[in-house]
């Protein structure tokens, strides 16, 4: 029976160019031929995964940068705008995750909707979302680690403590934590869902403690004016600064996409995936707005351009003992966020290699550890290099614009699949018809437009490199071999 089904699928695929969109039924059939993953995650577990992946450098690091350079106390409004945009996109993710509970997230959605080339672009773009996110979080980890060791009287030489442009030559701690976590991932040391839930609870408890203690020491005069006057250039305070701040801190919402990736390991993905995505977004949005308010109410916003703004805010209260707990908690939170991003990037490259868009090396699984060791190792080395040499503000902007581009395509996928596969069951359907997906695309485009011009140039350069690799290598490889990400039974 299986051979008949496989032959039928093979014949159908032989008549269809591999660059055409993959039917959702083919994706599901390919998934059914692969060894089943453990499907034991619940809606609560997905919320914990989303919050755990999301609460990282965005709240512990980039809040200070965005307040100091762009929005001032208006950072609270920036997080509201970012939360609205994320909510619109999150609803679209919820519909697709419930309809297609497969690995690969937005890469798989693009493969089913647009075809091979757009899927390649999304996969290449996701490097900005996962690998550069890991580098950004690692730089934040370095800032808190150095602040913690400085409390003990230990100081790194300036040349080894920061990237070029930030007063150093190489950020050694940032590179070190990436390499250490990469080694753990290669060895297969992944925490269970309940361990992740415990770490999330710890992070949320520390953030709530910061909000509660900070609220008792607020200086409300620091919030006036809520939106500082524009200083003559777009994005330098004023309302344009609030919008640019929203574009920068949008990085803080990166992570809920991990829930869509985990949908294939959920007991009831049709119900639990939407709950997990929306629940994680609500929790993180409320946390971010509260932290932005307390942060700018404790320290003058121009003094927050530091790698560890929350620690600086606690120092302003005089509660040095609690500052130690905050730094340790931030360090743990940033560690798990870095780990999650590195893990996600390796799985994206693994899926692309399975679709014959990358070399087979990226799809190789270690015979003992059962991890994509080559993919994980190469990603770790490249990410460590970026973390060591690139300033955090540049990294954060690149992650934001890359993620926003991927999110636009997810919203577009909802609209297109409703036309191409209208009979496909949709356990969760985005309310309002086409309004929410269109608003999600507009919101993402508006936030992208608010980012600096050099960020657009870096994105264009990154996509140009990706297209060169596709036309020079990926296109012929995808055409001349079996499309293993879709053809059932041909997995290795």
Automatic annotation (TrEMBL):
Q: Where mainly found? A: membrane
Q: Does the keyword Transcription apply?
A: no
Protein keywords = Membrane, Transmembrane, Transmembrane helix, Transport
Task: Name the domain of life.
Answer: Bacteria
Q: List all membrane-crossing ranges.
A: 41-63, 75-96, 117-141, 169-188, 195-217, 237-256, 277-299, 319-344, 373-392, 398-418, 430-449, 455-474
Q: Pfam families given for it? A: AA_permease_2
InterPro entries, per this entry? AA/rel_permease1
The compartments listed are: Membrane
Q: How does it sit in the membrane?
A: Multi-pass membrane protein
- According to UniProt, the name of this protein is Amino acid permease YhdG
At the highest ranks, the source species' classification is: Bacteria, Pseudomonadati, Pseudomonadota, Alphaproteobacteria, Hyphomicrobiales
């Amino acid at each position: 029976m299986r051979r008949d089904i496989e032959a039928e699928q093979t014949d159908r695929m032989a008549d269809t160019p591999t660059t055409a969109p993959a039917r959702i039924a083919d994706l599901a059939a390919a998934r059914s031929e692969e060894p089943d993953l453990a499907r034991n995650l619940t809606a609560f577990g997905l919320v914990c995964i989303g919050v755990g992946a999301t609460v990282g450098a965005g709240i512990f690091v980039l809040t200070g940068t965005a307040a100091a350079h762009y929005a001032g106390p208006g950072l609270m409004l920036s997080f509201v705008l970012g939360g609205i945009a994320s909510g619109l996109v999150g609803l679209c993710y919820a519909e697709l995750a419930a309809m297609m509970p497969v690995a690969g997230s937005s890469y798989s959605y693009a493969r089913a909707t647009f075809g091979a080339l757009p899927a390649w672009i999304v996969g290449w773009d996701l490097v900005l979302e996962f690998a550069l996110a890991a580098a950004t979080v690692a730089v934040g980890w370095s800032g808190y680690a150095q602040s913690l060791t400085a409390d003990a009287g230990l100081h790194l030489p300036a040349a080894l403590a920061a990237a070029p442009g930030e007063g150093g030559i190489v950020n050694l701690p940032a590179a070190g934590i990436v390499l250490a976590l990469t080694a753990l991932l290669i060895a297969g040391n992944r925490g269970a869902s309940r361990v992740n839930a415990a770490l999330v609870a710890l992070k949320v408890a520390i953030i709530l403690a910061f909000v509660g203690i900070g609220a008792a020491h607020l200086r409300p005069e620091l919030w006036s004016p809520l939106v500082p006057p524009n200083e003559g250039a777009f994005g330098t305070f004023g309302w344009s600064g609030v919008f640019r701040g929203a574009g920068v801190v949008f990085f803080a919402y990166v992570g809920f996409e991990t829930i869509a990736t985990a949908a294939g390991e959920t007991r009831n993905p049709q119900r639990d995936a939407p709950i997990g995505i929306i629940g994680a977004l609500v929790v993180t949005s409320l946390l971010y707005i509260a932290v932005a308010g307390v942060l700018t109410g404790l320290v003058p916003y121009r003094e927050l351009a530091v790698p560890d703004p929350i620690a600086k805010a606690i120092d302003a209260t005089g509660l040095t003992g609690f500052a130690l707990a905050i730094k340790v908690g931030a360090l743990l939170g940033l560690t798990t966020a870095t780990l999650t991003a590195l893990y996600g990037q390796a799985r994206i490259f693994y899926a692309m290699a399975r679709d014959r868009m990358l070399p087979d090396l990226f799809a190789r699984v270690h015979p003992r550890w059962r991890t994509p060791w080559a993919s994980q190792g190469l990603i770790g080395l490249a990410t460590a290099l970026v973390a060591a040499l690139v300033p955090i503000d540049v990294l954060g902007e690149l992650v934001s614009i890359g993620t926003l581009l991927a999110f636009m395509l997810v919203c577009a996928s909802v609209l297109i699949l409703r036309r191409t596969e209208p009979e496909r069951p949709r356990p969760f359907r985005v309310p309002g018809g086409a309004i929410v997906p269109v608003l999600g695309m507009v919101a993402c485009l508006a936030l992208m437009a608010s980012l600096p011009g050099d960020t657009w140039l870096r994105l264009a350069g990154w996509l140009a490199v990706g297209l060169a690799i596709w036309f020079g290598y990926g296109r012929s490889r995808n055409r001349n071999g079996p499309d293993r990400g879709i053809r059932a039974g041909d997995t290795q």
